[in-house]
């Protein structure tokens, strides 16, 4: 089994996202990095333009429910940009809605 952090590193290279090591160093200093063999997340709290506060998820691999609970404190929103979406628009969801939607998708 490939460790989650190695999967993220491979995705960075495959999709030409940027420099994984630079992002990792930045998130270790200014955000949150949690890694287990099955789950990995790099996130940081951000203030959105409309005044809401969210966890911005830079990278995540694994069970998304577990990943949300790995974050060190609760914020009302989760924000991320899908890599496959060429518009790179920021998606913002209330945490409860996000958790409900990902729990429907998980088999395990």
Topology:
Layout: H1 4-14, H2 20-30, E1 32-35, E2 40-47, E3 53-61, H3 64-70, E4 77-81, E5 90-94, H4 95-105
Parallel strand pairs: 3-4
Antiparallel strand pairs: 1-2, 2-3, 4-5
CA distance, first residue to last residue: 16 Å
Low-confidence stretches: none
Mean pLDDT: 89
How much β-strand is present in the residues? 25-35%
What is the element string, with H for helices and E for strands? Answer: HHEEEHEEH
* Radius of gyration computed on alpha carbons: 14 Å
**H/I helix tally:** 4
Helix proportion range? 25-40%
Protein structure class: alpha+beta
Instruction: Give the tally of structural domains.
Output: 1
Strand order of the largest sheet: 1-2-3-4-5
Task: Count the E strands.
Answer: 5
Q: Main β-sheet, in a few words? A: 5 strands, mixed
Shape: globular
Write structural notes for this entry:
The mean pLDDT is 89. A 5-stranded mixed beta sheet has the order 1-2-3-4-5, with helices on both faces. It is globular, with a radius of gyration of 14 Å. 37% of the residues lie in helices and 29% in strands. It is α+β, with helices and mostly antiparallel strands. It contains 4 helices and 5 strands. The chain has one domain.
List the keywords:
108 residues; alpha+beta; 5-stranded mixed beta sheet; 4 helices; 37% helix; 29% strand; globular
What is the gist of this entry?
The protein is α+β, with helices and mostly antiparallel strands. It has helices spanning 4-14, 20-30, 64-70, 95-105; strands spanning 32-35, 40-47, 53-61, 77-81, 90-94. The chain is built from 4 helices and 5 strands.
């Amino acid at each position: 089994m490939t460790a989650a952090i190695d999967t993220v590193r491979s995705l960075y290279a495959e999709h030409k996202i940027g420099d994984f090591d630079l992002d990792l160093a930045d998130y270790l200093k200014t955000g949150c990095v949690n890694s287990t063999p099955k789950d990995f997340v790099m996130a940081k709290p951000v203030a959105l333009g409309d005044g809401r506060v969210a966890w911005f998820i830079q990278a995540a691999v694994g069970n998304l429910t577990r990943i949300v609970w790995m974050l060190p404190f609760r914020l009302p929103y989760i924000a991320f940009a899908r890599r496959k979406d060429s518009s790179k628009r920021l998606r913002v969801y209330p945490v409860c809605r996000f958790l409900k939607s990902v729990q429907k998708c998980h088999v395990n």
